[in-house]
Queue: 2 jobs
Job 1
Amino acid sequence: MPKNRSMNRMVTFIMVVFLFAFLGITGRFLYIQASGEVDNVSLSDWASDIRETEMVLPAERGKILDEGGKLLAYNRPTYRLFAIVDPEISANSSIPLHVVDPKETSEKIAPIIDMDPKEMEAIIIEGQKNKRFQVEFGKKGKDLSKHTMEQIKALELPGIDFMEDSLRYYANGMFASHIIGFTRPDEETEEITGVIGIENKYDKILKGEDGFIKYERDYYNKKLLKSEDVVKPPENGDDIYLTINQKIQILLEDVMTEVDEQYKPERMSVIVMNAKTGEILALSNRPSFNPNEITELENWYNDAISTPVEPGSTVKMFTWAAAIDSGNYNGNEKFKSGRYQVNPQIEPINDHNRGQGWGSITYDEGFRRSSNVAASRLMWEKMGSETFYEYLQRFHFDQPTGIDLPNEKEGQILYNWPSEKLRTAFGQGSTVTPLQQMKAATAIVNEGKMLRPYVVKKIVDPDTGKTIKEYEPEVVGEPIRKETAEKMIELLHDVIVGKGGTGAKFGLEEYSVIGKTGTAQIPNSNGGGYMTGRENYIFSFLGMAPKEDPQIMIHVSVKRPKLKPTDTGSDPVAYIFRNVMENSLRYLEIEPDKETDVSAVDSITFPNINNKSVQEAKQLLEKEGIKPVVVGNGKKVIATNKASDEIVFPNEKVILITDKPVMPDITGWSKADVFQLATLLNIELVDSGSGYATKQSIKKGETITKQKQLKVTFKAPDLE
């Protein structure tokens, strides 16, 4: 009996516990049902969050174009290879939808993407073992061209497919690379970011802003029928038009490549500027890079704006300008050239011909012969060091130019001791960048008004075509008077044409040139003194043309070229300057100002050949003295690389694409002409080397189709 009583108590206790538990849980459910909350968390909101998913709508990065609207950098579609390895996907299909034979698949695909077949096979097998749905193939399987994608698809291998990506593409390869820059993904976020150049400086403007779409989904990740979508459209990045002129830039790149191959200098920088506006028409450095093939960058710095150096004698034009403008100059006054020593405690200044000089000469002749002694005397005896320093500041040698490119560095004026002041007057000790000198020189060719250099012409909304911002020439100072500028132009012209002038090699046949040569010593890397030897200098020239109304200004610098016994340091500099200046002047339709027979270089206006037969088009062009390259055997012209009313010169290549195109022999063609041909034929170009075409993958006479890929090897010619 006691045992039964004890058991009854236990049962009663348990029932009471269960009853309270049941009432508690029921009450909790009733509360949750009534309030819709758990621990102050709304169940409806929580469920919505669980069901809701968000998909990014990527903004398209803005394009970079030249001043005429030709594409320099843009996003183009690329393809990412993947393989479906899960056999379950084929369960209800009459044909296999997954990779059935990893070995056969790998052996057929791997050679096309330059991958080891065994490595590809191992990736597929590992994916199968780990019961993955699909696998990718790393870097080799990414950024594939449309041509490569179509090649692989034509194999009709089961389980092989592609995802479309977007890749930043630079249309002309190694073209104004330090100006345009390049992009790369962030290591952590994989967000595409501009690294140098315009891509970096205007990264935010080019990038735009991603949009998104939010919708509700079910357990199987399918969109609910009554989903309330939230959509924020992407804001595409703005397009940036540069002041760069594509033709002049390509010309510059080609000429610099020739010099690079021939003289193998340690460094080269060239800037081509519109002397009247400050617009940069072309700019290039060596070493350079192809932004489409970035692996390891040899030269990050845009030397033309980021590497201050001792300028040498080009700075003398500003020493003379300061003396003239301050009223402390008499060009007919004579001085003893050769050697100049202020006092026994200061090292003497020697002229560049080992201190021999040219006897007693005038200061005008001293400028023509680039006398160091004349420059130091003008600073020390005529105008005084304080006045000269004031002019250095007026020419903005103590500050950056303000160009719209990243990482600009200004030079340093060393001006504490008498020896530093004396040497600064002829371009030693103190440092400047080539662009600082060009900015200062704009005052000489613009009646005393100094202009800010710039490289961005305008920013445009790609969706509306509306110009958001347009940049205009900007006067940033008036360091000298108009009369001083006029006198300096005469002195600079005398450097080219005067007896004993150091710039005779820089003259042109049809245009009068003004300018100043420079030969700057290079400090020893150990910090003591300067390098010796005939090659161990930075050879430079800062020149403008035509003389009476200078339109184009060019600065060329070549560091430590490899010279033959018969060469001089100015030879590679003059070769670049003459080629780029003369062709640029012609292209911009600037009339020659020298009385010579210029019939060989007269330009023509390209006629309208739209819808013309090949025979009619040839007759029209040959009448104007142009022999076009006819691509194909068709009877009708369907495309050409010249627009109606475009200015064309007899030495330019005119390409006519017929309605039955076949591959021409492109041996000896420039890279620019080959790029134009590939664009007109709508085929992919893969180039290697630089200079002029020597090998082509599509043989002469072979029929052209859009699936073709043209591989061309370029090589620079011997300048001799």
Job 2
Amino acid sequence: MQKQLIQAIKAGPEPLDDELFLAIFEIEDTIEQQKFIEAARAKCREQKKLTEFNNMLRVWTSKNAQNQKQQGSNKTRFTDGPLVLNCGQWEATDTGIYKHELSGKGLPYKILACPHSILPVERLVNIDTNTEKLRLAFFKDDRWQYVTVDCTTCYNKQNITVLGDRGVMVTSETAKNLVCYLSDVVSLNMKDTEEGKAIPLYRSIARLGWIGNDFCPYVQDVKYDGDQDFESIYNQVRTAGSRQAWYDMAGEIRKDIVVRLLLATSLASPLIERVGALPFVFHLWGTTSFGKTVSLMVAMSVWGNPESGCLTRSMNMTQNAMARTASFLYNLPFGADELQQIRSRWDNFDNLIMYLTEGIDKGRAKARGGIEELKTWRNCFIFTGEEPITKENSGGGTKNRVIEVEVTKPIYESGYTVANTIRENYGWAGKEFIEYVKLISVEELRIRYKLIFDEIMQKCDTTDKQAYSMALILLADELSCRCIFPQDTPIQVEDISKYLHSNKTVDIAERAYEWCINWIARNQNRFMPDQNGEIWGKIEQDFALVNKEVLVEQLRLGGFEYGSVSRKWAENGYIIRNSQGKFIHNTKVYGAKANYVKINLNPEEKTELGIVVTEPVPAEFTEQTINWY
């Protein structure tokens, strides 16, 4: 029979079928079996089918090993159990998990692994980390319960005792036996066999957002394997109620530019990763009872349940909690209400804004050594509050990353009606928006994004970072007019220019100079002789000589650093250099010699050493060019 099969290989590829490999594994003598394999390989090599033969042999070897394991195996016997699995020598019944062994003296004794039903029902391999987890089912308190745990927990007798907190009855005495039972069941049920079905294997993820060109949770064959703390949020990203009811309500209230910007910001969040942009903050602020909370709920209803505690969160959380939540949401917007709740924790919100918009958490050491995996996120943050999130002395980087919109009057005629409608009808727009975006190539999105950015920079006095954030919002609004609100036309750049910080308000040197001029005006008596108290300098026509130490100290009290603004001041003609080109004038003021900074109180004309300098116009400049400048 074996020789006939080998000869048949010469006829073509068809003989490389089940009959050949069944014959291989029917040979009990390992030497004869290997001779047969080598003879088959020789024939396949002649026919250039060696690779095919080796691949098939590898698969059949694995299948045969699994069959050998399962021969004589017991099966789980749980009433109404989710699966029936091979469990080796273990007895797995409603009364518990145990097996019988013999002692060294030949006496039988019983080993207990768990006093109630338990078995693995899913294997989950994480898409991002390629790590595996097990979903366990156990019967307790008259019902089947489920828990997802790391394999490092299931397969380690020291770690598996933490399952006690989740309801599994495991002790330090039974931990080793439970580990053995679970590992045996997993190894015996890796693949489907004639004896039964394997434990289902799924792709899994611990966050929301893009997975290649798919978007979680709108992917059918991907399951959640993350922290139990966020599983409730994960389950809230869904549809509910009437699609038409939400669209009718949203179509009406988005006639208000504030609501429209919020809806566009919510939809812009998944675009951040697609176009390669940075996270940003959209802050809605104003007097209470103007509809800020309802507006935030409207924005979050795009994706799912907007109720507080679901997709709408409270700002009353630590920085670490914000990072964990942002990392979980990943591409979905982070919506949080009432910024003033955490005012007492921060002198200002600059550090928080910079931290969140960097999109990466700080590194942390593990308790057992090593570094935790860095958490990252690529989404936007929608906050509400009763005050601006940035201050006059906020850094330029902070102002660049925030779009602030003040609410000066009530947004809705009946906020109660709007809130109740979106509580019952939600989640439709986000899913349809993602399906539409998936049809557009990343390159096309980036080209359109850049065109909108260029238009903003041409028509608005703002910084590039402000323009990048607003361009995302306008892009999202434009796409939503194609797939969600076809009756509307996209927002124009002219409509949003007033919500962008100007170059002057973002430039920290400009803001520090404005502060300094006002400070000098408020303290003119300190720049005069014959008065009680300190003398800080003197004022001469359009200039003020200010003691450097005093200036540094007062700027710091105002939230500015002299060292970070002095060079820019000199470039803009706000301070006058000495004859050596330095910023300090060592001179006498009312008889006291010290180091003084000479501040130009009239910077409209460029000056040097107090003398107005008129720069000649280059001959090559045309009249048109001169007028443009």
